[in-house]
Specification:
The protein contains 17 helices and twelve strands. The chain has a five-stranded mixed β-sheet, with helices on both faces. A three-stranded antiparallel β-sheet has the order 4-12-9. Strands 6-7 form a two-stranded antiparallel sheet. The radius of gyration is 22 Å and the shape is globular.
């Protein structure tokens, strides 16, 4: 009997495997390793990962008609103690039950009803900026998207409590950084990062409990909090499931959209011709200074900018899956429990599918596009695609349009842009912007 064919393994260092190269240049290393084949085997202390960079194979994994793949153990560990009962890391019938319970809050018709609130919260945020003021762009976008999320999906007033969510998000992101001190220590050895995480999550849980107490006594609507509480009242969800799904929405829903807006502005400021075209497009199609669902359809240039920013700088830069049984994938035999990396960063910059892939070219989104579907998947894909995908796109379009119509942001970065390889594509340098109202 012939030996099973194993994927190629790029050069590595004894004992450390591929750790050193990843720590020095995580995203450059992923791109170099992907050049070795559509599936490559990577070795790190205590674990083996398989990097998959072929769109057809990624589609097979994410759509998984034979139940050969599931979410990775690494993902479950990352969100342990904060989203254990959320749709983000549950599987099987429980995942389907949670997804079904949340669905009414994320239909296109329901999401369109949030448009006015998204625009209003953006205007309120803009009005806090003074002419000539230099703002921390990423933080301001985080505050904006958090207020949009609280207003529309949660139906709560978050003013004064923003840092509860922001601090918990930062603690989760820091704990998930594979380069941090303590990642290789046994779980029973607490590190300062672990202790901070437990402290911030406990504070966030208490805040969400207070919000739920208020919402349970008040009127209900179509927002996610109402939908979850209605499901609880019908004995379809436990209160733990309600709480953890709200926590998941707060953490992921605000962080990823904020990054998308941050990178949109970073790119626009570096491409004044594209920026000027957006202003002209806005002035032509947006009436009364308030973009709507209807006017968004005429803002094709703005939609292209958002799509291109999500390509170059995908807030979710990697998706993890794990085999449930031995499988043959791309001609290679992978064992049960094999952890798979499906890196948006690599596929979005692969010159097999993109002309001049590192260049910012919003025009590439015009007309027909002849490329595989999973050469671009900023919101993952398959049945477990991001449930907030349509919400996030509407939010990015309307928030960016509102800002383009009301302010000019002159963005600056003191050092070359670099990123932390953690849960989301976070900048490791401060991105600031000087504000001028139009």
């Amino acid at each position: 009997m012939s030996e099973p064919v194993m994927p190629p393994t790029p050069d590595s260092v004894p004992l450390l495997g591929h750790t050193r190269a990843f720590s020095r240049d995580p995203f450059g290393a992923l791109e170099r390793w992907a050049d070795h084949g559509n599936i490559v085997q990577l070795e790190f202390p205590g674990e083996t990962l398989y990097l998959v960079s072929d769109p057809a194979l990624i589609e097979t994994i994410l759509h998984d008609v034979e139940n050969q793949f599931t979410i990775a153990e690494q993902q479950r560990q990352t969100f342990a103690d904060v989203e254990d009962h959320a749709v983000t890391i549950t599987v099987g019938n429980r995942w389907r039950r949670l997804r079904t319970a949340l669905h009414p809050a994320f239909t296109r018709n329901t999401i369109d009803q949030y448009a006015d609130g998204m625009v209003e919260q953006t205007i309120i945020r803009i009005d806090t900026w003074d002419d000539g003021e230099e703002i921390d762009l990423h933080r301001e976008m985080r505050l904006l998207t958090l207020h949009i999320l609280a207003e529309t999906l949660l139906g709560v007033e978050i003013g004064g409590d923003e840092d509860v969510v922001l601090d918990a998000t930062d603690a989760l992101v820091d704990r998930a950084d594979p380069r941090r001190f303590g990642q290789l220590l046994p779980d029973w050895i607490p590190t300062p990062t672990d202790r901070r995480f437990q402290r911030e999550v406990a504070t966030l849980d208490s805040y969400v409990d207070r919000c739920l107490s208020v919402r349970r006594e008040g009127p209900r609507g179509d927002d996610a909090c109402s939908v979850l509480l209605d499901a609880y009242d019908r004995d379809e969800l436990t209160m733990e499931e309600v709480r953890h799904n709200l926590v998941a929405l707060l953490l992921a829903g605000s962080d990823t959209s904020a990054l998308g807006l941050t990178y949109c502005w970073y790119l626009l400021s570096d491409h004044p011709d594209v920026y000027s075209a957006l202003i002209a497009e806005y002035d032509e199609h947006v009436e009364s200074g308030r973009p709507t669902v209807e006017s968004r359809e005429h803002l094709s240039g703005l939609r292209n900018v958002v799509a291109e920013a999500l390509r170059l700088y995908p807030p979710t830069w990697n998706t993890m899956r794990q085999t449930t049984q031995p499988v043959t994938l791309g001609g290679y035999r992978l064992p049960e429990g094999a952890e798979l990396m499906l890196p948006q960063w690599v596929l979005h910059r692969d010159n097999r599918f993109w002309e001049s892939p590192t260049e910012f070219r919003p025009s590439r989104w015009e007309g027909e596009r002849d490329r595989p579907e999973y050469a671009y998947f900023p919101f993952s894909g398959g049945p477990r695609h991001c449930i907030g995908m349509h919400f996030a796109r509407l939010e990015l379009h309307l928030a960016l349009a509102t800002m383009v119509g009301r302010v000019t942001l002159d963005v600056s970065v003191e050092k070359p842009l670099s990123f932390a390889p953690t849960l989301s594509l976070r900048p490791e340098v401060e991105i600031s912007a000087v504000v001028q109202h139009r």
